[in-house]
Amino acid sequence: MPRAHKLKAALLSLLLFALFLGVWQFATQAKESTSLAGASAEYAALMGKGAEKTDGFPPPAKVGRAFVEYLSDPFYDKGSQYTVPYTTYTTGIGYRTDKVSTTPWDLANPYEIYWDEANSGKTYLLDDGRGEATSR
Asked: Whole-angstrom Cα distance, residue 73 to residue 79?
């Protein structure tokens, strides 16, 4: 695909996303009730006039704020003491160039090293929770 088409596709995607967010914001914003126009201030307060909308689907701004809040300090790791160090650099392929004849960089898809005939019997994919790739 030419670079110009990729740029047009990206711009169109951003435009459609912005349109989606705009429609979502408009559809979920609080609406002023016209039925309370002649009512007393006390009755209007009892009916929730002027209060923030709390029922229904939240607007995108509120979802975004909650998303940032929950991800910045997740309930399962207050202060992000363990999550960030554990998830950093946990995916990939480790190898020793003195043990394998073909490296992942030599292949179109690096994960093809596991099925490469030149490295048969030298590569392993561990089937544990931490999923590491090693070679002897």
From this structure: 6
Domain ranges of the chain: 42-88, 104-135
**Residue 111 in contact with residue 128, Cβ under 8 Å?**
no
pTM score above 0.85: no
Tens of pLDDT, residues 92-110: 677 777 888 888 888 888 7
Mean pLDDT (the chain) is 76
Q: Transcribe the chain into DSSP letters.
A: --HHHHHHHHHHHHHHHHHHHHHHHHHHS----STTTTS-HHHHHHTTTTSPP-SSSPPHHHHHHHHHHHHHS-TTSTTSSSHHHHHTT-SS----TTT-SS-GGGSSSGGGGGG-GGGTTTEEE--STT--EEE-
The string of pLDDT tens digits covering residues 60-103 is: 988 899 888 887 877 877 777 776 655 545 566 777 778 888 88
CA atoms of 3 and 98, how far apart (whole Å): 40
